[in-house]
Amino acid sequence: MALFRMAAHSDTAFELVIRNYGMSAARDLHVSFDPPLSDEDRKDGLTDMVAKRYDAAIALLPPGSELTNTWWRGKNTGTNELVNGLNTPEEVSVTVSYKGNRIRQYRDTFPLHADIIKLTTYSVSSTSTPGRMKTIAESSRPSRLNSSSRIDSFERSGDACRPKMTQTTNSVRPRKPRGACAA
Questions:
Q1: Which helix (H) or strand (E) covers residue 115, if one does?
Q2: CB-based contacts of 153: which residues, under 8 Å, 6+ apart?
Q3: 78 partner at 20 to 30 Å CA-CA among 22, 65, 138, 152?
């Protein structure tokens, strides 16, 4: 089977997957594309890798195994929509032919369109790993108060000295403690 799927560690790329869902090995596996990947398309390094992988037959693809290649990589053009940064077509028919265990020949064609992935929607919980990473990233950005505050002096509070923050237009610059707080 041929399909598009989101890349595992990217929300701006997806991959072409050739997977053997069968119970037996796929032998003498041939994969072709319509439209074919031209010499001009192959000038892009990742597109060339896809073409090279499927230029020749693959001897054996065991049951449950898959072959993956990046097919679409989002490129920022300054608008709200990403465009494909690779030379791969947005719409392609992938033909997969192979021999089964009994030397029977199989052939399937899978029409694929980039919109199937590009129009995917999902939500991210703030308690999930990506959600927590976003929260951490946002909290590590300097706030308005922190970026315009300066440590002017240290105050004695119990057994500890703590900086006294004063609003200024300067950057954060700690001053050396004086008096009882000096180490």
A1: helix 115-118
A2: 163, 164, 175, 177, 178
A3: 138
Q: Phi first, then psi: give them for residue 113, nearest 5 degrees.
A: -135, 135
Global confidence as pTM: 0.69
10-67 pLDDT, tens per residue? 888 999 999 999 999 999 999 999 999 999 998 988 999 999 999 999 999 999 999 9
pLDDT in tens, 2-13: 999 999 888 889
